[in-house]
Design a protein that fits this description.
single chain, about 0% strand, mainly alpha, disordered C terminus
């Protein structure tokens, strides 16, 4: 999968506006925020029951499990738990990976985790697995979805139901977009300020980039006081 070549520049040039728009919209809260924060806090014991329950609850509250016959479906918790048990050492190793220094060995570890986690009952892995992995290794994996990530970066929401292709898509998006944004010098300075403010959802650099993607789809703040009165 390829994405629009101007997306990195566009996001960086509009970072302040998109960040303000995201927080003004105040779109998400309640259990979606609570379980997200608890999952991140417990990630250093990645195979523990509390952590996995928090991740499972986060994804359910983020809309990954729809009741009824249609929509996305998560697998049974025991399947998710069992899939992570054998990956604990790799997940702990991957928690030390950083955008500026990740090498081929690091990508190989991430691929093993991506291929090994079982969180969705459908054949599509990209969205569910990236969101689960984000809560285990937020420094390097962003949460990816169709509506914000893929539409902004690729102009469509199509995902090939093929594990190898989905892994390549995730790696391409992280290496070609998220890492260049996250390691940009000006953005790094903004991110440090935003993270220090401890606003809801500003929980990691990769989540900040995700927040900007969401903010790009929200109404922006008026540029001047005069405009606000119109």
């Amino acid at each position: 999968m390829s994405f629009k070549p101007d997306r990195v520049r566009h996001l960086l040039e509009n970072a302040d506006r998109f960040h303000s728009a995201y927080h003004l919209a105040d779109t998400f809260g309640g259990p979606s925020l609570y379980f997200h924060e608890r999952a991140l806090e417990s990630r250093h014991a990645p195979a523990s029951l509390p952590h996995l329950e928090y991740v499972y609850a986060t994804l359910a509250s983020w809309g990954m499990h729809r009741m009824g016959s249609g929509g996305s479906k998560m697998c049974a918790f025991r399947e998710f738990h069992a899939s992570v048990n054998g990956l604990e050492g790799k997940i702990l190793s991957a928690q030390g990976l950083m955008p500026a220094t990740i090498n081929e060995a690091g990508w190989s570890v991430l691929k093993e985790i991506f291929m090994g986690i079982k969180i969705m009952s459908s054949r599509t892995l990209l969205v569910g697995n990236s969101k689960a992995m984000h809560h285990m290794m937020p420094n390097i994996i962003p949460p990816i979805d169709r509506e914000y990530t893929l539409r902004y970066l690729c102009g469509n929401t199509m995902i090939a139901n093929n594990p190898e292709k989905e892994w390549q898509t995730m790696r391409t998006l992280i290496a070609g977009f998220f890492i260049p944004v996250a390691t940009d010098a000006a953005f790094t300075a903004k991110a440090a300020t935003w993270l220090a403010a401890k606003r809801p959802w500003d929980t990691s650099v990769m989540k900040l980039v995700d927040n900007l993607l969401i903010g790009s789809r929200k109404p922006s703040m008026p540029k001047t006081a005069a405009e606000a009165l119109r």
